[in-house]
Amino acid sequence: MHHSLEKIKKIDLHTHIIPESWPDWNKEFGRGRWLTIRHDADGAKLINADGTLFRAVEKNCYCPAKRLEECDTTDVLSTVPGIGFNYGAPSQDALRVAQFLNDHIGQVIKSEPKRFVGLGTIPLQDSDLAIIELKRCVTELGMAGVQIGSHVDGRSLDDSSLEKFWTTVEELDCAVFVHPWDMSDAERVQKYWFPCHGFHARPDLCQTVTTTDPNLVHDPEILELLVKKFGEDRIILGSDYPFPLGEIDRPGQLIETTQLAKEPGDTERIRQKLLWKNAVTFLKLPDF
Ligand SMILES: [Zn+2]
User: Fold this and answer.
1) By the 8 A CB rule, do 120 and 95 touch?
2) What's the N-to-C CA distance of the chain in angstroms?
3) CA–CA separation, 196 vs 178, rounded Å?
4) Is 67 contained in some domain?
5) Residue 82 Cα, ligand 1 centroid: separation in angstroms?
6) What CATH number has the domain bearing residue 258?
7) CA of 90 to the centre of ligand 1 (A)
8) Rounded distance, CA 130 to CA 146, Å?
9) Which pLDDT tens digit goes with each residue over 12-35?
10) What is the pTM of this model?
């Protein structure tokens, strides 16, 4: 494989993309709970079912070409939780939405396989449907795995109802990226926030290590501490692009500029792991 010297390899594990448009699921399912998208001069607005604004997004949220122009990283694409995590909805409706979103991400990653890696979304409130869609994502759509929420409409991720799902994940040997969402239950968060974002398998780390104070992860000393505590093999760059949680101008900047060990050679080794090598292992991308 040839790499130009000045270009630094980077995989951004935590980025989001949505389709440019989608059906009005409120009409389709006859239940008013789904977001719609309305385009205007500067981008688009996501609108709640009651007509109020959910959030404004820019073109880089739905336009792959715009993302290629703005970023020099390989983006791991997943849906926006507000659109894709419909764990409280009837499971058949949630499945239809997941299929639509996954077909879209499947197309985008096929169009630029070196720049985009995909994570699907699944109706986790129904293990059987979730497993069917998980298998489709990995075996048919070429995704590295799925993104799921940090709980399933109140059920924790170790709930016995999810056992079949986790068994299938093991069989497929695919990645599961846990995205924080709906963090209103403070007690639950207190108990889980650290393990959820670090060590055990959900290396959704850099920018999302805390959802309450994003500044924390812009601090080189905290990054050094994380490397020390969790280990250099357990931390992966993730910026939340295109949302302004992280390093919007240059994902990876903190890792690139922090001295992560006493010896420069050690710092360089750790840096490469955090910027892309650990992601290659987590996502199983042998050709990267
Ligand atoms: Zn995110």
Assistant:
1) no
2) 9
3) 7
4) yes
5) 10
6) 3.20.20.140
7) 24
8) 10
9) 999 999 999 999 999 999 878 999
10) 0.87
